[in-house]
Amino acid sequence: MTSNRADRPASADSAELSCPKCGAAMVRRVAKRGENAGSQFWGCSTFPKCRSIVPIDVPAPKDPPTADRSDQACPFSSPPPEPQKGLLRKAVAAMDGIWRWSLEADEPDATDRWNPKHRRKVLEYLHIRDGERCGLCGGTMKLKGAQVEHVVPKRFAVFELTAEGEAQQGTYYTSVLHGMENLQAAHPRCNKYKGNTPDIRRWRHPSMPRLVVAKANDGRVLMLPPMDDV
User: Fold this and answer.
1) Which residues of the chain have pLDDT under 70?
2) CB atoms < 10 A from the CB of 103, how many?
3) Would residue 2 count as lying in a domain?
4) Structural domain boundaries enclosing 39
5) Share of residues in the chain with pLDDT > 70 (%)
């Protein structure tokens, strides 16, 4: 027999095993005929003296890894807002920033409460910023009797429903906590009605100015009310 047979080695790479019959090295070959034509196998390097073959195990295809939904962009998150444009708007934004800074410099106590005098100043700022309206219902509201209310809790995750109807955790956020952006004035009855609802669309009324209330690990921010509600 000659060396140019149809079943000569497809390449020179050898297997990390010995022939089960004669102990010689095994080499990779390609079947040229029969129902297994085109498939590879390990054949004895002394062929045709030894015709021992060993099939090459083809690993079963692995299931694609499950996507980590916590890294996907939340449908409610947005890039950080761009700075104000125009001289007048920049001036107003600067004045508002100084006002907010002075209010945020006084941190609440261990029970998350400011002293009554400072709390009154915070409430006055929120009342003016939101056009003297309740942040939860959007209705007009007098300063007397209004409450300071956090828009979002300290840490939370947005859960999303899959096509199968299962809830999976989405983007994980950290709120700006006691920053003025995460505070709003509200009617006491609206604050009580909101409670601990997980529906973020109920955390701030669609007609209210948008606020950056929380930040995600990927640099995006959560602005409420959501863009699809504006």
Assistant:
1) 1-16, 34-36, 57-74, 107-113, 154-170, 228-230
2) 19
3) no
4) 9-55
5) 72
Query: What is the number of other CB atoms lying within 10 angstroms of the CB of residue 211?
Result: 25
169 within a domain of the structure (yes/no): yes
Give the separation between CA 28 and CA 10, rounded to whole angstroms: 6
Residues 14 and 116 in one domain: no
CB 154 within 8 A of CB 70: no
Distance between start and end Cα atoms, the chain: 83
Q: Are 110 and 218 members of one domain?
A: yes
In a domain, 64, yes or no: no
Total-model pTM:
0.56
Q: What is the pLDDT of residues 18-71, one digit of tens each?
A: 888 888 888 888 877 766 677 788 888 888 888 888 877 645 445 444 444 444
Residue 158 lies in a domain: yes
Question: Residue 25 — left, alpha, or beta (φ > 0 → left; ψ -120 to 50 → alpha)?
Answer: beta
